[in-house]
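ok trying again, last paste got cut off:
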Amino acid sequence: MTGEGAVPDLLQIIGGNRLEDKKRLFREYAEAIIIALIAALVIRAYVIQAFKIPSGSMEDTLLIGDHILVNKFIYGTQIPFSDKRVLVFKKPERGDIIVFKYPENPKKDFIKRVIATGGDKIESKNKVIYIDGEKINEPYIQHTDDAIFPHEFGSRDNFGPIVVPENKFFVMGDNRDQSHDSRFWGFVDINDIKGKALIIYFSWDSKASSPLDKIRFGRIGHLIE
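nice, full thing came through this time. structure:
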């Protein structure tokens, strides 16, 4: 190609190539972002999900401001729009700390410890828990109120015996006198369990005086038991 039109034609070709490169780059970025978002949604729905502890019902095991990761697949993956679960590695056991849909308001998530499972007979005598007539060892609990209420005044300190139905769980908070749990609203259904608390990945003390003290470095990476 010769003459005056050669340079403009060449610039047009170069400009067109650059435009195509930009379109291709934009498409690649868009595809990468979409794939990342889909992967994040799948992981959040079926593998690992982050939760923040909003209350003191699990103190001192979990503190207000602890940020935790929850294993969502260990109890099996629930098939959408059904009650069936697949790839069940284990069922919730006594001592497991679980996140679940609050039975009285499924839009809220609660976190408590499993104290009794299907078939267990649970009873509380003056704040001491018995399963099938045997006192259980609970080194994780704390009591902040020395008063003991008889059964006539509520189920906080004395209740039962109660037999837990199959595929149901009786859960309680470790901060036993300050926890709203199965003693008051009943059992947790297996299909309402979201997963098992796994690890504390961050912890923030909003009441600390200095910014550096607000981060509880000693709790980061702590396995939840």
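cool. The chain is about 20% helix and 30% strand. The CA atoms of residues 140 and 208 lie 25 Å apart.
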